[in-house]
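Summarise this fold before class:
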Amino acid sequence: MLAGWAGRVPDGFRFCLKAHRGLTYSADAYDKEGLARQVAPVLRGIGPALGPVLLQFPPVRQRDPAMLDRLLGALGLAAAVEFRHDSWFADDVYGVLRAHGAALVVTDQDKWPRAPRVEVSGLAYYRLRRDYDAAALERWRRELRAEAAGRDELHVYFRHEPEAPARAAYILGE
């Protein structure tokens, strides 16, 4: 199925998938690394159309750099990591992300702590989850264009709603 999807998209298109919650939400005793080793070869079936995999940690999961290191190592794919507990925003975690070339997800969602703007890799990943007036969208446009100039790869996602494609086109200058 995934190879079929990849065969139907234009060159340069990237699928950026959200990882199964078993990798991030499961109990400490659950074999997250084993699941990552099972999932990774399937995702690799997308080939060059595979973008970063989003790993989204729950608000109850507190900082565990060793677990993060093992998980990213087992996955072995480009990843973007979103933390919802502020204990993760620490130098040892940034070091793990750097070691794996993973992105620290930036979001503007109020209900979770906001990640600091720390460059940990050439990959940047933004999840923009609000309604935006023209001035706010223009601020994001300027910030994201500056961000893109200094990165190898930039991914920006708006909330799933009818206005999202127009917002993305505006950011891109189309």
User: Anything to note?
Assistant: Residues 134-149 form the longest helix (16 residues). Residues 2-172 form a domain with the TIM Barrel fold (CATH 3.20.20.410). The radius of gyration is 16 Å.
